[in-house]
Design a protein that fits this description.
Strand content: 25-35%
Oligomer: single chain
Distance between the termini: 101 Å
Bound molecules: zinc ion
Structural class: alpha+beta
Strand order of the largest sheet: 1-2-3-4
């Protein structure tokens, strides 16, 4: 049976058996779990991080972004969870899936590189003192000759 909405359940840990239509949120682990909205019974785990899913709780319902694409399941279902409601995203071509994966990888790489840039900025810049250079041979010669 197709699931039309997900009701948030804040839990300390995920129960052995998930109920369809419930969205289990283990905030301590920054992870949510629910059963695939197509009704296939597969468990969908959505970790929360800047490069995974972001969840918003409006006090009653939960929204997840980006969309949930269960490409590893037979059903290959793809949907959004918006204000607790399942919104089907329709079939996605393999090309679009790959593009999405590439975007994810790029987003993760960008986070990595911005982190390393920050590290570089924190490193002290070595100072160069050109002014302390010894007087040139010509200058010495001039002095010696009395100019
Ligand atoms: Zn499914």
């Amino acid at each position: 049976m197709t699931i039309k909405s997900l009701t948030p359940q804040f839990v300390e840990s995920f129960p052995q058996k998930l109920e369809p239509g419930e969205l289990y949120l283990a905030m301590e682990f920054a992870t949510a779990a629910h059963l695939c909205a197509c009704g296939c019974g597969n468990k969908v785990i959505t970790p929360f991080s800047p490069t995974d899913w972001q969840m918003s709780f409006d006090g009653e319902t939960v929204s997840l972004k980006p969309s949930i694409g269960n490409w590893t399941f037979k059903c290959r279902s793809h949907y959004w969870v918006r204000s607790g409601r399942i919104e089907w995203a329709g079939n996605m071509s393999q090309e679009a899936i790959n593009a999405g994966r590439k975007r994810d990888a790029e987003a993760k790489a960008q986070v990595q590189s911005s982190r390393s840039v920050q590290n570089v900025v924190r490193e002290p810049t070595p100072l160069t003192h050109e002014q302390t250079e010894a007087p040139s041979f010509i200058d010495k010669l001039k002095k010696w000759l009395g100019f």
